[in-house]
Specification:
One of its GO terms (molecular function) is nucleotidyltransferase activity. The protein contains 10 helices and 31 strands. With 414 residues, it is α/β, with parallel strands linked by helices. It folds into 2 domains: 260 residues, Alpha-Beta Complex (Spore Coat Polysaccharide Biosynthesis Protein SpsA, Chain A), CATH 3.90.550.10; 131 residues, 3 Solenoid (UDP N-Acetylglucosamine Acyltransferase, domain 1). A hairpin with a 6-residue loop joins strand 9 and strand 10.
């Protein structure tokens, strides 16, 4: 098949509200995939990586958020990228593979040779072009992006064993209780259309088992919450595990950065990683010190509509969103400042996320310890939080519309 006739479709799995509870309070205001990292929605980073693929025919977002959450975003992005971007809402959670299968007719409508599938809550460099070349060379049903991590954290993810020469996936175990390998699944895949046959086989096998074993009404009631429906199919346990060792799946290892975005603290880490990536991919997005704006140090994104005083010092690893106002003498380090935030003179923000329409008074200090993995390792202010003059907030989570007139340390303020 010639390169001109090879079409690629990208699918990004965005999940839904029941999967975003760990991202609160940030997900109370915006769908988690639209939360900004390094000045762009979380989901836009993998979308832009997909856009670099030749012969990309369509990008689908699959999840169970309400349609209105993504309508304006996908419409604007389609016009900007000149590639159709469409959100597909599941009627209920079907699992990562089940969601694909539900919309198989749309995904296959362009007759693609390759289907890129990514989890939205993944932060990495998305080496899709090289991964696609490897996938086509191997000629298998699927290729998985993998990364080597320390044995101490490997069990938190899907662990796998791959042939060191061919890359063939030999064994896969999702979050095993005993150590299997220091290679983990990064949640980025490339499949051939044959993947839908594998998903159909799982559905059929489950249906056949249900028909063969007749249950009493009491047994059926008891098992309803314990067994998976035929429609709920996961890529990892239900597809990767049984196909491992059958010369169907291959592993492509990345040496670059990778994080899974499950809790708000990690979003600070990921924002910094993407800002660092901008140096080579999008240097025009990085702010520079000039006579009109603040003093900038390191990797910093400042939205064009934000106002920064020339005496403020910003960076490294800072992202400032639309209509934010940064006053004189302000110091910002390792933080995300969201839309319409006002920070008054000589305030300090370190290792923190400042929510939409929040305000920090003069000489206020909002900071975290910088441990991205613990609940109170950074400070998070929800929407419309007011921190009054000279108040110090350290390692706290503050829900929306609170006024802090006293200093607080390691508290969750509801």
């Amino acid at each position: 098949m010639s390169e001109e006739s090879e079409k690629v479709v990208a699918v990004i799995l965005v999940g839904g509200p029941t999967k975003g509870t760990r991202f609160r309070p940030l997900s109370l205001n915006v769908a988690k995939p639209l939360f900004p990292l390094a000045g762009q929605p979380m989901v836009q980073h993998p979308i832009l990586a997909c856009k670099k693929i030749e012969n990309l025919a369509h990008i689908y977002l699959i999840g169970f958020y309400e349609d209105r959450e993504f309508a304006l975003y996908t419409s604007a992005l389609s016009n900007e990228l000149k590639v159709p971007v469409r959100y597909l809402k599941e009627d209920k959670p079907h699992g990562s593979a089940g969601g694909l299968y539900q919309f198989r007719d749309l995904i296959l409508e362009e007759d693609p040779t390759d289907i890129i599938v990514l989890n939205c809550d993944v932060c990495c460099s998305f080496p899709l072009t090289d991964m696609l070349a490897f996938h086509r060379k191997c000629g298998g049903m699927g290729t998985i992006l993998v990364k080597k991590v320390s044995p101490e954290v490997a069990s938190e993810f899907g662990e796998l064993v791959a042939d060191s020469d061919s890359g063939e996936l030999l064994h896969y175990a999702e979050k095993p209780e005993t150590f299997v390998s220091d290679l983990i699944n990064c949640g980025v895949y490339i499949f051939s259309p044959e993947i839908f046959i594998a998903i159909q086989d799982v559905k059929s096998a489950r249906h056949d088992r249900a028909v063969l074993r007749r249950l009493t009404s009491f047994e059926a009631l008891q098992s309803a919450t314990k067994t998976l429906s035929a429609d709920f199919i996961r890529l990892d346990q239900d597809i990767l595990t049984p196909l491992a060792g059958k010369k169907k799946l291959y592993a492509y290892e990345t040496q670059d950065f990778w994080e899974q975005i499950k809790v708000p603290g990690i979003s600070l880490r990921c924002s910094a990683l993407y800002l660092g990536q901008y140096r080579t991919t999008s240097p025009h997005l990085l702010a520079k010190s000039d006579s009109k704006g603040a003093i900038v140090s390191g990797d910093v994104y400042i939205h064009p509509s934000a106002k920064t005083h020339p005496s403020a010092k910003i960076g490294p690893n800072v992202s400032i969103s639309a209509n934010a106002r940064i006053g004189p003498g302000v110091r910002l380090i390792g933080c995300i400042i969201l839309d319409d935030v006002e920070i008054e003179e000589n305030a300090v923000v370190m290792n923190a996320i400042i929510g939409w329409k929040s305000s920090l008074g003069r000489w206020a200090r909002v900071q975290g310890g910088g441990d991205y993995t613990t609940k109170l390792g950074i400070t998070i202010l929800g929407e419309g939080v007011s921190v009054e003059d000279e108040v110090v907030v350290i390692n706290c989570i503050v829900l929306s519309h609170k006024t802090l007139n006293r200093s607080v340390h390691e508290e969750i303020i509801l």
